[in-house]
Amino acid sequence: MSQTAVKPACKHATLGQSLLQKVAQMSCVLDRPQFDRVAKFVLDPALDVPQEVLERIALLLIDTLGVAAGAATLEVGQIARDFAVEFHAASSDKHSATLLFDGRTCAVPGAAWALATQIDNLDGHDGYNPTKGHIGCALVPALFAYAGQHPQLTGRQALTALAMGYEVAARAGVALHATVSDYHTSGAWNALGVAALGAHLRRQTSDVLREALGIAEYHGPRSQMMREIANPTMLHDGSGMGALVGISSLFLAERGFTGAPAITVEREDVAHIWEDLGQDWTILRNYIKPYPICRWAHGALEGVRVLMVEQGLRAAEIERLEVATFAQSAALFPGLPKTTSEAQYSLGFALATLLVHGRIGPEHITGSGLNDPEVAGLHARITVREEPRHSARFPGGRWSDVTAILQDGRRLTSGDANARGGPEAPMPEADVRAKLGAMAGHVLSEGRIAALWDIKHRLLQPDMLFSEMADLVTPAPDR
């Protein structure tokens, strides 16, 4: 008999063998003990969260609610809430939640989806550099949606659960981008944090958690972020679907629905990402945005702010503004925006707005703010290019430098500037309070804003019920 190897009958046989090999490899790298360590952290009813972490998560929570309030009157927020009420109806009160800054009710997953979509479309919420995305945008809406079924939940318990969810989501995001070639929106991975948050609050078992994480990862919206950057729409960063998928995954798992184990949690090559869970609190490195603009623009915005503060730069003096930034920032929407979505992804528009008005608020990226002739005129004199040294620092930082050529021939240079609001350049609490007023001032009374800020401190008191905060943020806008 000939010893010559038998060739496959066709090319598809080779393809089939390759796929089988990949499946076998995938099966053998899943690590249940690795999952068990994660489950122990997630489900611990007495989870010990350091005081400084609880204080930070309280600040992030209030900041996110300010953005949620500011986005309540956006068209996309109104669409999302109406859609949730009409198409996510709950069969009974035990499955319902109240829509924040609205007052109507719908099913728990729909309430989280609507609020996350609303927040996502006013791009002023917090984020974590290594994930290249956002956590609180999905987890805060999920917390309020879940909390309606837990009337005895204290503020401190809610903050503990939220901190835990942030840590899971952060690591899921880092693990996803370490194991796939494409750059996905935040909804692809913050769905796992949402599922973990619910499992903690609902005192679930590790088996239910494992299925929930597997379902959430499998169904998470692996949408391509750069498509949205090139064509800005209401889809934004996918966090609405991340919230919906995360809660739905947990509720399905509770009913016996099974899901393939989450490889971002259990694969051996991501073990190092999870090994410091409960020891290194990434929450302390989340940034707070000074402006409701894509974070990729914030390095250049900081460069301009430095020139305005330190060298007195004013829009009327500028002949030309040259921006050197990292590749992702240079890829932001180049034209003059016609919609709020385009405005939040437009580097040139953001810079021109800051120079003309000295700040960027919701009013500058909506309505008549999109048709400001002075902003449009300055926008036409701004050029942007990629600078390799800034690209090399991404995603650890959002670096840029800006040069202003003035009408009298002078050149003002910012030097290298990183985005403000993160651990390397934190915003003072007074600035965060001012931002709260700027975000929510057109929809909430000053009294309600002050009460929201005040409750940040009281959340840490042992006996305060979380429902007190919910009562403050569920009624419709005051204005």
TrEMBL record:
InterPro entries: MmgE/PrpD_sf, MmgE/PrpD_sf_1, MmgE/PrpD_sf_2, MmgE_PrpD, MmgE_PrpD_C, MmgE_PrpD_N
MmgE/PrpD N-terminal domain ranges (all copies): 39-266
GO molecular function, one term: lyase activity
A UniProt-annotated Pfam family: MmgE_PrpD_C
Annotated ranges, domain MmgE/PrpD C-terminal: 291-449
Protein family per UniProt: Belongs to the PrpD family.
UniProt name for this protein: MmgE/PrpD family protein
Lineage: Bacteria, Pseudomonadati, Pseudomonadota, Alphaproteobacteria, Rhodobacterales
